[in-house]
Amino acid sequence: MSSLYDFTINSLQGKEMNLADYAGKVVLVVNTASKCGLTPQYEGLQALYDKYADEGLVIIGSPCNQFANQEPGDSEAIQGNCLINYGVSFPITEKIEVNGKGAHPLFAYLKKAAPGTLTNAVKWNFTKFLVGKDGQPIKRYSPTTKPEQLKADIEAALQA
Q1: pLDDT tens digits, the chain, 160 residues: what are they?
Q2: Is residue 123 within 8 Å of residue 98, measured between CB atoms?
């Protein structure tokens, strides 16, 4: 696979999302969790989406339960948490794995294209991958990088 646009992933509602539909947009892909100390980052992600969606930013949240069982719920529970607690309106995928043999191919690609420090594995919930309008990963951000810290990079990618 040579770009983000080569992948499909199911939405939280079980509908196939063809990522080629986002061609020409800047995409931020984030592995998420509802019971994590970093879960309040949903607010910051939604703020970025509200600010930049009209300029071409798409955020895709991908719930994952591989880190300390912090996303134990089913699709309904995840949707309720995202919508009720954080007002999330950006796309959320089905619950997936981001590491190991069961890792979703999208995350296998992102990890290889935007390597991490020491290892390519996703280290925790809320690891973020910024992808340019051409479908190529630009940068990986650590889980503790707050969404508002991405503004300059997002603005640069939108202008590119």
Answers
A1: 689 999 999 998 899 999 999 999 999 999 998 888 888 899 999 999 999 999 999 999 999 999 988 888 788 777 776 666 778 899 999 999 999 999 999 999 999 988 887 788 899 999 999 999 999 999 999 999 999 999 999 999 999 9
A2: no
Question: Within 10 A of 8 (CB to CB), how many other CB atoms are there?
Answer: 13
d(CA 28, CA 36): 19
* Contact partners, residue 17, CB within 8 Å, separation at least 6: 8, 9, 10, 11, 60, 91, 93
From its phi and psi, is residue 66 left (phi > 0), alpha (psi between -120 and 50) or beta?
Answer: alpha
Assess whether 82 carries a catalytic annotation: no
**CA separation for the pair 108, 20 (Å, rounded):** 17
Query: Tokens for 138?
Result: 């630009």
Spell out a b/e string for 115-127, using b for 16 or more CB atoms within 10 Å of the CB, else e: eeeeebebbbbbb
Q: For the chain, how many residues are written?
A: 160
> Per the residue annotation, which of 9, 26, 33, 36 is the catalytic one?
36
